[in-house]
Amino acid sequence: MFGKLLTSFRTTILLSLVLAGVMIYAFGSTAPGGFDALFWQAVFRWTHVFAGILWIGLLWYFNFVQIRVMPSIPAELKPAIGKHIAPEALFWFRWSALATVVAGLAVMFARGHAYAMEVLSFGLAQGLTEDQKGFTLMGIGVWLAIVMFLNVWGVIWPNQKRALGIVAVEDDAKARAARTAMLASRINMLLSLPMLTSMAMYQTLFG
């Protein structure tokens, strides 16, 4: 019975979300402030982390696996990837990028407009004093994530639509689009580790 349930991706992910929802409710029920503003900040953070894992995981899948392996795949098998796997992966890739950024901004503003302004201005909003320099490092991560998000929607996705034939173009334009999308994806991969370093180190050292 349980094995049959797990054969369905939709059922598995919905059940996982339900279980996560129960856990989130349990945290709200036991937290000192209950379902207060801090609780919702935690919900936004959970959403940010969940979407971020999906986004960056797919970014790394494209770069660690698909782009590297594609040249060695026999020509007769490549259409299956271009017509079935890549479009599906790109769907989750671009929408998880949007969800990650929106949820991240929600976390930031839930901590107060003053905090958000410090982060977005690299700690310059109230003058870059010694105690503001942590905001500089966090701000770098936030702006790197925003640049990566804009790269996904403004460069990678439009060019992938041409490269995969979702938008009809000439063969030479399709080849140029594929290369542009690959290079843009590599830029995001390049930025991903500095961005994650900023996020993780700031949360651990500054809270």
Structural notes for this entry:
It is a single chain. It is built from 7 helices and no strands. By secondary structure, the chain is mainly α. The protein starts with a helix and ends with a helix.
Helical region count?
A: 7
Ends distance: 44 Å
Query: Tell me, what's the shape?
Result: flat
The number of strands is 0
Structural class label: mainly alpha
Strand content is: under 5%
- Largest sheet geometry: none
Low-pLDDT runs: none
State the main characteristics.
7 helices, 207 residues, 0% strand, flat, mainly alpha
Write a brief caption for the model.
This protein is mostly helical.
Secondary structure layout:
Elements: H1 2-6, H2 9-30, H3 37-69, H4 78-110, H5 113-120, H6 133-163, H7 171-205
Helix pairs in contact: 3-4, 3-7, 4-5, 4-6, 6-7
